[in-house]
Amino acid sequence: MPYLLRRFMQSLLLLFVLISFVFVVGRIIGDPALIMLGTSASETALDQLRENLGLNQPIWQQYLVFLGDLVQGDFGVSFRYGFSMMPSDALRAEGTPVLPIVLSRLPATFLLAGTALVLAFSLAVVLGCLAAMYPRSWIDNLVNVISLASVSVVQFWLGLILIIVFSVQLGLLPTGGYGSWQHLILPALTLAARPLGRISQVVRSAMLDELSKPYIAAARAKGVPEWRVVFVHALKNASIPIVTITGDELSQLLTGAMLVETVFAWPGIGLLLIDSLGRRDLPMVQAGICVVAALVILVNLAVDFAYTVLNPRIEMDNRGGRA
Amino acid sequence: MTAVDAQTLPQDEAHDRAAAITSRAYFGALMRDRVAFVSAIFLGLLLIAALGADLLAPYEPNQANLRARFVPPLGTARDGGFHLLGTDELGRDLFSRLMHGARVSMSIGLLGALCSGIVGITLGVLAGFYRGLLEDVLMRAVDGMMALPSLLIALFILFVIGPGFGNLILIFTLLHWMVFARMARSLTLNHQQHTYITAARAIGGSDRRIILTHLLPNMISPLIVLFTLEIAVLILSEASLSFLGFGVQAPQSSWGLMIARGREYISSAWWLVVMPGAAIFLTALALNLVAAWARAITDPVQRWRWLTPPRRNSQPIDDED
């Protein structure tokens, strides 16, 4: 499969570029010792840290060591993880390897992003199809309003509004945290808003295109029930743009989760990243960025793969980008 | 619409008249689309509020007044001062603070979009005009950068180089030029096939002249639409970064930072969170609506429906894409 193989190599290259970028920004533009200890640190403490981290070596040697460590899954040890606010983490000491900690936060992020995506996708397909079936009806207008509002709203603000309404005023749901299904509702709703708007708009226009094609008229003429015409015949053929936008939105979700996790104290990878940024824990930040970026790149690759399954012509075209 | 008249008039006069009718027609089209009209008015008022905040704001934005703490919207403080949108934990008037915050949020949006637009359009036009290696490298870079999570990278760079107004603009330029480059390149490729470019080249126009006086003016309208949308995107990004503590820093204040501050009082003073977020929402919404209008009106296929006055039983508003 030359096309997919090439896409795979491109993804690897992109990951490599990103990792190098993280190195360049962290080591060359910034001074790791200064980043971690802050400007108020004494010169001896800075020197001590530089010595410990091997920052006195030539830069290319540092780069090779950095890459070599990454290949072995060694992102360095955390600097101040002991101060974490998560109760379950509080007992761990400084000097813990960062990668296992980052990976241990993945399930929470997956749960949140997955729930949001399922929620947004199913609702968007139904709304988009209905809007395409009844153009200019109230449901069509609703889809337009939702999609416009979803690109104009700041996610974290939406989350705070939901907290004000459902937690503070009505007292129905917890304001944040992790554990029961009640904890999941508000963050998932917040995160689902944006993809809901984007996907439903794409479903609507793709379905409008499909529904005007001759094979639909043929299906109707031979007496196929309307719901079957729309949800089986047309939807299947409209799936390519829908899959593309859903993949794009999934990679957006992974980064959007960062803000939503911060608002709801949801212990995912995003909250860990933001906490680590606040604690100036450079190794943890680097590991978090690399893991999230790798996930995003993986999602993009998966979308391209889904593409060739849905539309075999792409394989034939043998083009570099998405059609 | 003016073609018939124009033939009977001397050249200059015809030109003036065509211009006058066109701008009147554009204005008429704006008036007829009520949603876009209201959005444009809102943006205009916002601009006035942001520029004239020093003169127009009812209170000093950083003036603490402990006798007026946590006054709810439309409330009156104990010292008799009326506060349209209430006051915060130090008794500062929220409406005045929003006006001053508008200045920061809007200027970051505008400047960021302007800088990334200039970089992106320059690179995109050059890539589309000269093709070759430059185009290959540039477009690969665009594809690669578009695939990366930009908020994450912005956070990391700001973490290293430090937050602040200037750094925000730098980050936005670095991470948002690709959209402009991609569009400018495809527009350039498209326009280069037209006869007027061949003609300009045939009479000996230099590359520079062709790009500056022929290509760019003809590409400008879709780029302006994109520019408008980017302002909205950047205002939202700025809010997110400021909310996380890596954007605008106190004593400067933007809408995003105001939400972050208000969050502490979410259970007692909801307006501190709701109002700045509503300001962001309305601004981004208005920008999106105006962009949608501008896209429709600059699209030759859709334009006639807008510029010709509506007849009975005909709907001028049609946003099919």
From TrEMBL, chain A:
Name its cellular compartments: Cell membrane
Asked if Membrane is a keyword of the record, the answer is: yes
Q: Which CDD domains match?
A: TM_PBP2 (cd06261)
**Keyword terms, alphabetized:** Cell membrane, Membrane, Transmembrane, Transmembrane helix, Transport
Question: Where is the organism placed in the taxonomic lineage, from the top?
Answer: Bacteria, Pseudomonadati, Pseudomonadota, Alphaproteobacteria, Rhodobacterales
Membrane topology of this protein? Multi-pass membrane protein
Q: What PROSITE patterns is this protein classified in?
A: ABC_TM1
Give GO terms: molecular function aspect only.
dipeptide transmembrane transporter activity
An annotated GO cellular component = plasma membrane
Q: Which residues cross the membrane?
A: 12-30, 110-133, 145-168, 253-274, 286-310
**UniProt keyword annotation of Membrane present:** yes
Q: Which Pfam families match?
A: BPD_transp_1, BPD_transp_1_N
- Which organism is the protein's source? Marinovum algicola
Query: Which part of the chain is the ABC transmembrane type-1 domain?
Result: 106-303
Name of this chain's protein: Peptide/nickel transport system permease protein
Similarity remark: Belongs to the binding-protein-dependent transport system permease family.
